[in-house]
Amino acid sequence: MSVAQVFDKLEQNFNADAAEGLDLVFQFDIEDDKTYHLVINDGTCKLHEGANDDPSVTLIMNSETLQGIVSGETDGMQAFMAGQLRAEGDMMLATKLGELFKMG
Protein backbone atom coordinates (compact mmCIF):
# COMPACT_ATOMS: atom_id res chain seq x y z
CA MET A 1 0.00 0.00 0.00
CA SER A 2 1.41 3.41 -0.94
CA VAL A 3 1.61 6.29 1.51
CA ALA A 4 -1.17 8.09 -0.40
CA GLN A 5 -3.38 4.98 -0.08
CA VAL A 6 -2.67 4.82 3.66
CA PHE A 7 -3.90 8.42 4.06
CA ASP A 8 -6.97 7.67 1.91
CA LYS A 9 -7.73 4.79 4.28
CA LEU A 10 -7.29 7.07 7.30
CA GLU A 11 -9.71 9.58 5.79
CA GLN A 12 -12.28 6.82 5.14
CA ASN A 13 -11.99 5.60 8.75
CA PHE A 14 -12.49 9.05 10.25
CA ASN A 15 -14.75 9.19 13.33
CA ALA A 16 -16.63 12.48 12.92
CA ASP A 17 -18.36 12.16 16.32
CA ALA A 18 -14.98 12.14 18.11
CA ALA A 19 -13.99 15.34 16.28
CA GLU A 20 -16.96 17.47 17.34
CA GLY A 21 -15.70 20.89 18.40
CA LEU A 22 -12.06 20.17 17.53
CA ASP A 23 -9.86 22.41 15.39
CA LEU A 24 -6.54 20.62 14.86
CA VAL A 25 -3.89 20.00 12.22
CA PHE A 26 -2.00 16.71 12.27
CA GLN A 27 1.07 16.90 10.07
CA PHE A 28 2.85 13.75 8.93
CA ASP A 29 6.46 14.09 7.74
CA ILE A 30 7.08 10.78 6.01
CA GLU A 31 10.87 10.55 5.78
CA ASP A 32 10.97 8.35 2.67
CA ASP A 33 7.95 9.95 0.97
CA LYS A 34 6.05 13.26 1.12
CA THR A 35 4.62 15.45 3.86
CA TYR A 36 0.85 15.42 4.37
CA HIS A 37 -1.45 17.12 6.83
CA LEU A 38 -4.95 16.36 8.05
CA VAL A 39 -7.14 19.30 9.01
CA ILE A 40 -9.71 18.29 11.63
CA ASN A 41 -12.36 20.96 12.05
CA ASP A 42 -15.58 20.45 14.03
CA GLY A 43 -16.38 16.95 12.79
CA THR A 44 -14.74 17.17 9.36
CA CYS A 45 -11.44 15.81 8.07
CA LYS A 46 -9.58 17.05 4.99
CA LEU A 47 -6.31 15.60 3.71
CA HIS A 48 -3.77 17.91 2.09
CA GLU A 49 -0.42 17.17 0.51
CA GLY A 50 2.47 19.31 1.72
CA ALA A 51 3.28 21.10 4.95
CA ASN A 52 0.95 23.26 7.02
CA ASP A 53 2.14 26.66 8.31
CA ASP A 54 0.99 25.97 11.87
CA PRO A 55 0.38 22.27 12.64
CA SER A 56 -0.94 21.33 16.09
CA VAL A 57 1.40 18.33 16.12
CA THR A 58 3.89 16.93 13.59
CA LEU A 59 4.54 13.21 13.49
CA ILE A 60 7.81 12.15 11.86
CA MET A 61 8.25 8.55 10.71
CA ASN A 62 9.01 6.43 7.67
CA SER A 63 6.35 4.88 5.44
CA GLU A 64 6.78 1.40 6.98
CA THR A 65 6.01 2.74 10.48
CA LEU A 66 3.00 4.69 9.15
CA GLN A 67 1.58 1.60 7.45
CA GLY A 68 2.11 -0.49 10.59
CA ILE A 69 0.31 2.01 12.81
CA VAL A 70 -2.65 2.48 10.44
CA SER A 71 -3.02 -1.29 9.88
CA GLY A 72 -2.92 -1.90 13.62
CA GLU A 73 0.21 -4.11 13.40
CA THR A 74 2.34 -1.47 15.17
CA ASP A 75 1.38 0.24 18.41
CA GLY A 76 1.99 3.99 18.09
CA MET A 77 3.31 4.32 21.65
CA GLN A 78 5.72 1.41 21.13
CA ALA A 79 6.93 2.97 17.87
CA PHE A 80 7.49 6.25 19.74
CA MET A 81 9.44 4.51 22.53
CA ALA A 82 11.55 2.62 19.96
CA GLY A 83 12.44 5.86 18.18
CA GLN A 84 10.55 4.92 14.99
CA LEU A 85 8.13 7.80 15.55
CA ARG A 86 8.96 11.32 16.68
CA ALA A 87 6.52 14.10 17.54
CA GLU A 88 6.90 17.88 17.54
CA GLY A 89 4.34 20.26 18.99
CA ASP A 90 1.52 19.10 21.25
CA MET A 91 2.51 15.46 21.71
CA MET A 92 -0.61 14.67 23.70
CA LEU A 93 -2.65 15.22 20.52
CA ALA A 94 -0.93 12.24 18.95
CA THR A 95 -2.78 10.05 21.46
CA LYS A 96 -6.09 11.36 20.06
CA LEU A 97 -5.44 9.76 16.67
CA GLY A 98 -6.79 6.43 17.93
CA GLU A 99 -10.09 8.10 18.84
CA LEU A 100 -10.35 10.09 15.61
CA PHE A 101 -9.54 7.22 13.26
CA LYS A 102 -10.48 3.57 13.44
CA MET A 103 -7.13 1.82 13.11
CA GLY A 104 -6.58 -1.78 12.06
Automatic annotation (TrEMBL):
Organism: Marinobacter lipolyticus SM19
Residue ranges of domain SCP2 in the record: 9-102
Gene Ontology cellular component annotations, sorted alphabetically: cytosol
Lineage, highest ranks first: Bacteria, Pseudomonadati, Pseudomonadota, Gammaproteobacteria, Pseudomonadales
Superkingdom field: Bacteria
InterPro entries: SCP2_sterol-bd_dom (IPR003033), SCP2_sterol-bd_dom_sf (IPR036527)
Name of the molecule in the record: SCP-2 sterol transfer family protein
One Pfam family from the record: SCP2
Signal peptide start and end residues: none
